[in-house]
Amino acid sequence: MSAPMLKFVGLGQSYPSKRAADARADDFREIADRYAADQAEDQSARCSQCGVPYCSVHCPLHNHIPDWLRLTAEGRLREAYELSNATSTMPEICGRICPQDRLCEGNCVIEFSGHGAVTIGAVEKFITDTAWEEGWVEPLVPGAPRGQSVGVIGAGPAGLSAAEYLRGMGYDVHVYDRHDRAGGLLTYGIPGFKLEKPVVMRRIERLRAGGIAFHQGYEVGRDASMDDLRQRHDALLIATGVYKARAIKAPGIGSVGVVEALDYLTASNRKGFGDAVPEFDDGSLNATGKHVVVIGGGDTAMDCVRTAIRQDAASVKCLYRRDRANMPGSQREVANAEEEGVEFVWLSAPAGFDAASEGRVSSVKGTRMRLGAPDASGRRAPEPDPDSDFTVRADMVIKALGFDAEDLPALFGAPELGVTRWGTVRVDNKSMMTSLDGVFAAGDIVRGASLVVWAIRDGRDVSERMHAWLKAKAVSERKAA
User: Fold this and answer.
1) Are strands 235-238 and 244-245 parallel, antiparallel or unpaired?
2) Which residues pair with 49 in a beta bridge?
3) With helix as H, strand as E and coil as C, how does 121-167 read?
4) How far apart, in whole angstroms, are the C-alpha atoms of residue 158 and residue 161?
5) Closest to 243 (Cα-Cα) out of 96, 443, 435
6) Do 264 and 234 have their domain in common?
7) What is the Cα–Cα distance from 22 to 310, expressed in whole angstroms?
8) How many other β-carbons are positioned within 10 Å of the β-carbon of residue 437?
9) Burial label, 13 (beta-carbon count in 10 A; 0-12, 13-18, 19+)
10) Which of 76, 168, 357, 454 has the fewest CB atoms nearer than 10 Å to its CB?
């Protein structure tokens, strides 16, 4: 069976239909339907099969995108899944949450020609969801036992990806995580309307069924020191991510009702799991009936504003110091938020927080901003616009300015662990090893707050480096014996 490609000239771009904004704002289900098979085939057939596929070049995983698009267009879905799965441990998750408009689709050649990019993310999601339904997703089969064990600190995408590859190589793999469920931000940071939790849990259960041991509610530094784990395992991987919220320095920041984005999102996701969440039930981390102001312009801020809408907030505003064109979050997420009733206050920054007599926040004092000269990253730096103060009513303020690294040397009781001036773990660029022999690091704790797809890529890369080091260690130990 074959299907002609290059249909982009006569066939327009078509994403899976989204549920109406008022309907989807009432629940935490994903907002878009999935392609029917014929739609997925037609949209895949729009691919121009470039000689130099910029979509693959700009994908951190370098997925074989044109190849599995062609297979999908030809109705060869199982082969398409197998090729997609060959370079990614979580293709259906990336299909849902990757900012394709900044990566693969944003660099699609037919997008440049004005015909609209191939809908790569939606096809990727369709392929792997179909694979799960049809039973094509095979169990994780451990490699021949090597007699060596690896400890992974952190059960987010970098740690889980590395654990999967290392288990497939035959290592005993133990994953340690402070939370009661694995998945990191996939589980507790990203809302269900972007990533429904059964999609994450089935991946984790597959790893557990493959013999990976999960130690949940386990804190390195409390339940074991770094030295304890080094004695227990032949190699360690630090893949904790970055969780320290960036601060706002402004009068009134300590007012009741000014909360951290991750605390807010975690509470909401826990309620979705059916957990008891006292801070949600008493209103501390619940936006119902409140005038909510979210400060920030990244994907976490978009998650917060859209969660507040679903909690039936009285109003939801997002303050961001740059304009729409210069915000770091996905433009698709901004559009979704606007459809659902979020108001964006561009070129604005908080200058202070007013509180009522009982100490609860009542309003945000803001300052209008303007864009000046480009900063070190090339983006135009915001600067205050004189005499432009304003006030926004707020019963709840959510700080979503991004995340920095925690003080791991202190937390882990490992002062000899080398870190950069930003607090991220310092590694050798070639070996991905830290300053401690046999201790590696990958993901956001090395590169800083970044994308899930980069964490998956780092997990894949570090597993190869650890494998090479562990093989050399085994040879050395045999010679010494």
Assistant:
1) unpaired
2) none
3) HHHHHHHHHHHHHHCCCCCCCCCCCCCCEEEEECCCHHHHHHHHHHH
4) 5
5) 443
6) no
7) 10
8) 10
9) middle
10) 357
Do 69 and 156 fall within a single domain? no
End-to-end CA distance of the chain: 59
Q: In this structure, are residues 122 and 95 in contact, taking their beta carbons and an 8 Å threshold?
A: yes
Q: Dump the DSSP string for 215-233.
A: EES--BTTTB-HHHHHHH-
pLDDT class for 3, splitting at 50, 70, 90?
low
pLDDT band per the 50, 70, 90 thresholds, residue 1 = very low
Quote the DSSP letter at residue 247.
P
The 10s digit of each residue's pLDDT in 210-256 is 999 999 999 999 999 999 999 999 999 999 999 999 999 999 999 99
CA distance 322 to 354: 23
Q: Which of 15, 20, 21 is nearest to 35 (CA)?
A: 15
292 neighbors 398 (Cβ within 8 angstroms)? yes
Q: Count up the domains in the chain and report the number.
A: 3
Which pTM was predicted? 0.95
pLDDT at 2 > cutoff 60: no
- Nearest residue to 294 via CA among 248, 331, 355: 248
Please state the length of the chain.
481
Give per-residue pLDDT as tens, 325-349: 888 888 899 999 999 999 999 999 9
User: 125, 193, 190: which is closest to 336 by C-alpha?
Assistant: 193
Convert the pLDDT of each residue in 7-20 to its tens digit. 898 999 999 999 99
Q: State whether 180 and 106 are in the same domain.
A: no
The first and second tokens of residue 232, run together, are 């227990």
Tell me the HSE value of 58 on the side-chain side, using a 13 A CA sphere.
17
For tokens 């919220």, the residue is 245
What are 48-90's pLDDT values in tens digits? 999 999 999 999 999 999 999 999 999 999 999 999 999 999 9
Whether 312 and 426 share a structural domain: no
Domain that holds residue 54: 7-134
**What is the amino acid identity at position 105?**
E
Rounded Cα distance between 116 and 35, Å, is 18
Is residue 142 situated within a structural domain?
no
Tell me the Ramachandran region of residue 191: left when phi exceeds 0, alpha when psi lies from -120 to 50, beta otherwise.
beta
